[in-house]
Amino acid sequence: MNSASSNKSQRPSSLSEGPARQLGRAGPRGWFAQWSLGRRIAAGFGIILLLVVLQAAFSARALFEADAKVSNISKTSIPALTLLDKVNRQVSEIHLLVVRCLLTSDTSVVRETEKQVAALRDEVLSLCEQYRAIGVSTPKEKEAFRHMTELRDQYVASRSKLFGMLEAGDREGAQAFNASIFRAQYDAYQKSVLDIVDSETNDAHAAAASTRSTMKLARNISLMSAGGVILLGVVFSVFLVTGISRTLFRIASALGEGAEQVAAASAQVAGSSHTLAEGASEQAASLEETGSSLEEMSSMTTRNSESAQKASVLARSSRESAEVGAKGMESMQDAMAAIKESSDDIAKIVKTIDEIAFQTNILALNAAVEAARAGSAGAGFAVVADEVRALAQRSAESAKQTAAKIEGAITKSRQGVEISEKVGASLGSIVEKIRQVDSLIAEVSTASTEQSQGVAQINLAVGEMDRVVQSNAANAEEAASAAEELNGQAATMRESVTELLRLVQGGRAGSPETTPKPAAEPAPAAGKSLRAAFLRGNPRPAKASERRVSRPAGSGEVLPAEMAFRDI
């Protein structure tokens, strides 16, 4: 384990920096150089797109203006010119009919012609109203239309007067009126109509010219914008390709160095994993021996606990027996005290009997003295007194003997009481000692039980440590396999870097300055022999497979080497 940690501490410091930090130090530090590839492309295409949008906006505006002008010509100028042309033709036809009437003297022809003129007049009025609705909008047009209307009204009034003269048969007066006034009014009226036609024609020509100018300007600007966009696209493409080529070259160089460092690190990881597996194997063996010793200790502790429990049961039984004996001794002490009291009472009774015998003896002596005094009369009474005296003496003698025996019994009872008190005190001390022994044995039994539980917990902990060591050994094997696969990924990265350099530099990709150096040979993986060495036939933990570093091809997981490409 220590060797594995020392190997980890000996890894190259450049690995901690990584290719990304080396890329950050390479290249110019201008604001454009700090932009990402996507940002550069977006900026370039954004400018081109902006120019295209501006060109499209200007072209659309020019087209809208041209469309508005053409629409104005088609909806206003052309219909107005058409209406004015019809008005001019109708006015000419009306004047021609009037002139024909001047050449005939038939009044019926004049009346018929007047009807035709009236019909044509209504058409002229209708056409003028239509023209005013669509073609009269500006002040100039309104003034021209008003002037034409005034001349038309004068012409219509003179025409009516002329028809009146013709109907009256004054043909010469009518011809003179025509030559002096009516023709001049007609010419003025027709000239006003033609002036409006010329004005509308000029407006239409101006609108058409303006439309052509707008379209020409839009075409020129579109051509110039297209040329500018193409030129800007070429410049931007050259600039972008040059910048990307330089950046990719720096990235490829940094990735080549990173691949070498990854290969070296994978070799170190493989060596560290091998050392870690050996240490884990030794630790597993030591933990198994420790587990065996703890199992034996646990068995002995369990037996000690059982013996202590049995001793506690025996001590409790002895304490109960001693307590029963102490209670019996207390009862015997009470009985001995009662016997002593009874002996004392008997001694008092015997003493009373002795005193009674003494008094009886004295009375017998007095009776004998009185009988002796009485002489023969008291001879019989003297005999009785002698007998009473002899009886009193025997009673006194018996009382003395009984008193002596009772005294001996009292003395022995007193000695028995003293002995029973001493035996009771000894039994009390024995009971107290047995209680203390029972308490100590109970404490020993509790401690033995707790010690057994503690040893069992230690045994479980050692078993868990053994499983952890087994798992560490399996992880060391996985790490060794991952290091081997990491070395394969480093080789794949070197091939990708070579292809990237070939893409950037073309034929120069194979030069020794740009081709990354081959990495050191990978350390041998632990394999099945290593597994057998540090697992010793124990099943692998269930979670070991979940911590595998290696992944099948195409799984989509990003490896450290691929993360650098994604950063780029």
Account of the 3D structure:
- Among the domains are: 44-241, Four Helix Bundle (Hemerythrin (Met), subunit A) (Up-down Bundle), CATH 1.20.120; 283-472, Methyl-accepting chemotaxis protein (Helix Hairpins), CATH 1.10.287.
- It starts with a helix and ends with a helix.
- It has helices spanning 2-9, 13-25, 37-102, 107-135, 139-167, 171-374, 379-505, 527-535, 560-567.
- With 568 residues, it is mainly alpha-helical.
Count of extended strands: 0
Task: Quickly give the CATH architecture of the domain at 44-241.
Answer: Up-down Bundle
Global structural class: mainly alpha
Helical element count? 9
Reading off the top of the CATH hierarchy, the class of the domain at 44-241 is best stated as Mainly Alpha
Fraction of residues in helices? Answer: over 70%
Q: Tell me about the largest β-sheet.
A: none
Strand percentage: under 5%
CATH topology of the domain at 44-241: Four Helix Bundle (Hemerythrin (Met), subunit A)
Q: What separation lies between the terminal Cα atoms?
A: 38 Å
Average residue-wise pLDDT: 72
Q: Which geometry do the CA atoms define?
A: elongated
Low-confidence stretches: 1-29, 512-568
Radius of gyration: 74 Å
H-E string: HHHHHHHHH
Describe the SSE topology.
Blueprint: H1 2-9, H2 13-25, H3 37-102, H4 107-135, H5 139-167, H6 171-374, H7 379-505, H8 527-535, H9 560-567
Helix pairs in contact: 1-6, 2-6, 3-4, 3-6, 4-5, 5-6, 6-7, 6-8, 7-8
